[in-house]
Automatic annotation (TrEMBL):
Record keywords: ATP-binding, Nucleotide-binding, Translocase, Transport
Protein species of origin: Leptospira perdikensis
Listed SMART domains: AAA
InterPro entries xrefs: AAA+_ATPase (IPR003593), ABC_transporter-like_ATP-bd (IPR003439), ABC_transporter-like_CS (IPR017871), P-loop_NTPase (IPR027417)
GO terms assigned for molecular function: ATP binding; ATP hydrolysis activity
NCBIfam families (alphabetical): PRK13548.1 (NF010068)
Keyword Translocase: yes
Pfam hit, one: ABC_tran
UniProt keyword Translocase, yes or no: yes
Transmembrane segments: none
Domain ABC transporter: 3-238
Function: Part of the ABC transporter complex HmuTUV involved in hemin import. Responsible for energy coupling to the transport system.
Name of the molecule in the record: Heme ABC transporter ATP-binding protein
Amino acid sequence: MTIQAIDLDYSIGSKQILSKIELEIHPGELHVLIGRNGAGKSSLFHMLCGDIYPQKGTIYLDGVELRNYSKSQLAKIRAVLTQETNITFPIHSEAVIALGRHPHATDVSRDKEIVQTCLKITDSIGQREQNYATLSGGERQKINFGRILAQAWETPPRYIFLDEPVSALDIPNQYKTLNICRHMADQGYAVFMILHDLNLAAQYADKVTLLHQGRIIKSGKPNEVLTSENLETAFGIKTRILNAPEGNFIIPEIIGETI
């Protein structure tokens, strides 16, 4: 059970977005993709999910070429949280989480139990009967994370893709969400996410992939990838790395600029 990307190229018009991408996603692993804005992270993310296809190269999901899966088959295998969820009609937050059970032909009573569990573990019980459209950005992000958990629940092989899952959350909810992701990986899920916070990546990831100008600079353990040299290449800033029992901490050099 793995997702394997082999020699991927992707372009839009004359602009090369991704080049020679080699990557694997494994069950039981929390894998974080990092890089600057415009590095190609979102394109790679959507390619690995099966939403778009490379012009060159192949992606295999459990030994079968990804493009051979139907959308309904993929919905039973992997759950995807994108940055934007366009729900414009009135709907209770609980019903949004219940949408995650739609791909599965499971018992209705069991589906309801799973939805209630996902409401509880995302601390969203208080918003269950609220109109989704009236929620704050952080509350919506928690509800959509709950929907992804409901979709992935009890459906091995299980892949979870998360595009910036903590971008709208305060610090306690960032850690709660990533603790849940860490637990899911420890339970055998393959969790692949984009993060911008390098210190969160260093704390939580089993594997980090650093993308720069459409190419992978380095992929491996956080302490192997998140080095001062690699970060300067990818982000154009100097950093100091502090070693601590909890993991490495990255401190960027503050550069004063005149407005």
